[in-house]
Amino acid sequence: MTCAIVLWVLLGTPTRYVSAVMYKTFRGVKWKTNALLTALLCPGIVFADLFIMMKILWMEGSSAAISSATLLDILTIWFGISFFGAYFGNKEKISCPVHTNRIPCQIPP
After folding, report:
1. Can you spell out the DSSP letters for 7-35?
2. Which of 44, 36, 43 is closest to 19 using CA atoms?
3. Using CA of residue 52, residue 9, residue 36, residue 30, what is the dihedral sign?
4. Which residue in 77, 14, 78 sits closest to 44, CA to CA?
5. Which terminus of the chain has a lower count of CB atoms within 10 Å, N or C?
């Protein structure tokens, strides 16, 4: 379970990278808002759910619970790499190989 959580945290960097590249490709102007929402929205909900589940397991005295120090370490790693992918993704932009013509083509009857 700890391995799955650590992988979930570490795979957040490619997620933020792809999100930043796609946002810049579509000419978004609020890249900081995009990076913040990508970093906090879905992972924040999952982490809050994980924390509630761990709290219940701690109260029951289960051995399946992750220690609070490990949970704090995972949270620190998550915040530490939160904007790493967005920083590098904001520097790139996907260029489309085809340009569209503004004048519509005439279709014969």
Report:
1. HHHHTHHHHHHHHHHHHHHTT-S-HHHHH
2. 36
3. negative
4. 78
5. C
Cα separation of 70 and 84, whole Å? 22
On whether the CB atoms of residues 64 and 57 are closer than 8 A, the answer is yes
34, 17 Cβ separation under 8 angstroms: no
Contact 65, 54 (CB under 8 A): yes
**What sign does the dihedral 55-59-60-62 (CA atoms) show?**
positive
Kindly list the distances between the CA atom of residue 76 and the CA atoms of 6, 44, 107, in Å, as whole numbers in the listed order: 11, 13, 60
pTM score: 0.57
> What's the rounded Cα separation, in Å, for the pair 90 and 10?
19
Residue type, position 76, single letter: T
Mean pLDDT split into 10-residue runs, the chain, 109 residues: 71 79 84 80 78 87 82 76 66 70 78
Tell me how far apart the alpha carbons of residues 77 and 84 are, in angstroms, rounded to a whole number: 11
